[in-house]
Specification:
The chain is mainly alpha-helical. 70% of the residues lie in helices and 2% in strands. It has helices at 13-24, 38-60, 65-71, 75-107, 111-126, 129-137, 156-159, 162-187, 191-199, 204-234, 246-257, 260-289, 301-313, and strands at residues 145-148, 152-155.
């Protein structure tokens, strides 16, 4: 196979013209024209139009918005929000502690403890929390007197106060879900960690406390934060057991002032504020526990804003050159 030979004489005019053109003509700049996404603009306009229509409809409705502002920080409403936080935090703490115990029991090689834990989770996950609250509230119909020999004896109606019914109903139901979350977190830790701990002479309990659970927290924390935010909203169900939390407090004001919808808006605003605050805390808590598994932590929302502003400020005007 032979190479192609250039048959143009080296001193010919055609050769001189081609060389001079190649030497004098510079490549043109490439102008990158972005693709026009017409559908995005249309969908954005449609969504904004629907939001404007929704806001206009509520502005024209028979709603006393001044009453919403006046009652937003009413002492009764603020006290109800405080009781909502109290019952949610206590129920969540009790649910987490009991959930860890149930998860360890579920993973135990003892068939009795494993079966009891499975039965507990099966029952409390299989029945609605509203039904469980009513069961605790009406427990005096089955056991009129709470009698623990040599320890405690009292009327069940005095023991099962609205606060106690709310706490037991929410906490015991939450423990069933936390048990499954903790079990998944414990099983996510490599078995080699446990084997190495046992090789160093650590007991089963010490291995669980010092080695397994600290590593499992990275998996347990995110769904636990979601469960607590859900607990804040689920606490409104304790209205059924006459516990005077946020929803009951606002409903009582609405029934006496005939501002029923306005007070429901007040309760919704408080729930949104509380869940938003704890969502921010959950984000930074997850970010802290992700330090050992990620090479570089994701940017925080404020860091993203600063990066986007810097990129927008440094954007070159005109087309992209190459």
């Amino acid at each position: 196979m032979t190479d192609k030979l250039d048959k143009t004489p080296p001193g010919s005019p055609a050769g001189q013209v081609s060389v001079s053109k190649a030497a004098t003509t510079a490549p043109e700049n490439i102008k990158a024209i972005p693709v026009r996404h017409v559908g995005r603009w249309i969908s954005g306009v449609v969504v904004i139009g629907l939001l404007v229509a929704l806001v206009y409809a509520f502005s024209q409705g028979n709603i006393q918005w001044q009453a919403v502002g006046d009652k937003l920080f009413d002492s009764t409403v603020v006290a109800g929000a405080g009781r909502t936080l109290l019952i949610s935090v206590l129920a969540m703490v009790l649910g987490v502690v009991l959930g860890v115990v149930l998860a360890v029991m579920r993973l135990s090689k003892n068939p009795v403890t494993s079966w009891v834990a499975w039965l507990y989770i099966w029952f409390f996950r299989g029945t609605p929390v509203y039904v469980q609250l009513l069961l605790w509230f009406n427990l005096a119909l089955i056991f009129p007197v709470l009698n623990i020999p040599f320890i405690y004896k009292d009327e069940m109606t005095d023991v099962m106060t609205p606060f106690m019914c709310a706490l037991l109903g929410l906490a015991l139901n939450e423990a069933a879900y936390m048990a499954e979350i903790c079990r998944a977190g414990i099983q996510s830790v490599d078995e080699g960690q446990t084997e190495a701990s046992h090789a160093l002479g650590m007991t089963q309990g010490k291995t669980m406390r010092r080695v397994v659970l600290p590593q499992a927290l990275r998996v347990i924390i995110p769904p636990t934060g979601n469960e607590f935010i859900n607990m804040l909203k689920t606490s409104s169900l304790v209205y059924a057991v006459t516990y005077n939390e946020l929803l009951r407090s606002t409903s009582q004001i609405g029934s006496t002032s005939y501002a029923v919808m306005e007070m429901l808006f007040v309760a919704s605003i408080w729930y949104i504020v509380m869940t938003s605050v704890f969502s921010v805390g959950q984000y930074y808590l997850e970010r802290r526990y992700a330090r050992g598994s990620l090479r570089s932590l994701p940017l925080t929302p404020w860091q993203r804003v600063k990066v986007n502003l810097a990129a927008f400020g440094n954007r070159p005007s005109g087309g992209v050159s190459a």
